[in-house]
Specification:
Elements: H1 3-24, E1 32-37, H2 39-42, H3 52-62, E2 68-73, H4 79-89, E3 94-100, H5 103-107, H6 112-128, E4 132-135, H7 137-145, H8 158-168
Helix pairs in contact: 3-8, 4-6, 7-8
């Protein structure tokens, strides 16, 4: 190999190394957020664009934060269901999980303590992966308290979903 060829090969290798290192360093402005839970997270009774994960993502973008918010809500899900799909629903690189789960456990006969134990197990597994967990339950309950629910008394209206997103927005950093 002549000197010119060696020079260009080194230059190409340095360039490749640089671009690979840049791709591996995902900036904080692209942090992954997962909304995890059951039908309220999914947006039961409203359009997908009106569900709080979509609204939260739009609010974050409006504030100059290019975060993605993945909606991992499944209608009817329970804490055991979330635990069984946790690794697939919350991919590597996730920084924050917004958690809203447990109501279906109680509706299906579990005690409040059993539902709480399921939630605690989900939180422990996420924290073991160094993922921040935001409990959305107080904000959901506040929306319900303001009457922002569908006639079933459980699921949020589009205004309730928007309220929930607006309450979660300042918690995202």
């Amino acid at each position: 190999m002549n000197r010119s060829t060696q020079y260009w090969m080194k230059a190409v290798l340095w360039a490749v190394a640089f671009f690979v290192s840049q791709a591996a360093c995902v900036p904080a402005s692209h942090a992954q957020i997962v909304a995890l839970g059951a039908s309220v997270v999914q947006g039961y009774g409203v359009s997908s664009g009106e569900a709080f994960p979509s609204q939260l993502e739009a609010m974050l973008h409006a504030n100059g934060k290019n975060y993605s918010v993945s909606n991992q809500g499944i209608s009817g899900d329970t804490t055991s269901g979330v635990l069984s799909r946790l690794d697939g629903a919350v991919p590597q690189g996730t920084r924050t999980v917004i958690l809203l789960i447990g109501g279906n456990d109680v509706r299906r006969g579990a005690t409040t303590e059993q539902a709480r134990a399921g939630v605690n197990e989900i939180v422990a597994r996420l924290k073991a992966r160094n993922i921040r967990v935001i409990d959305a339950a107080p904000y959901y309950m506040a929306a319900r308290g303001k009457g922002m629910v569908l006639p079933d008394g459980i699921h949020l209206t589009a205004a309730g979903q928007r309220y929930l997103a607006s309450q979660l927005l300042p918690l995202i950093n």
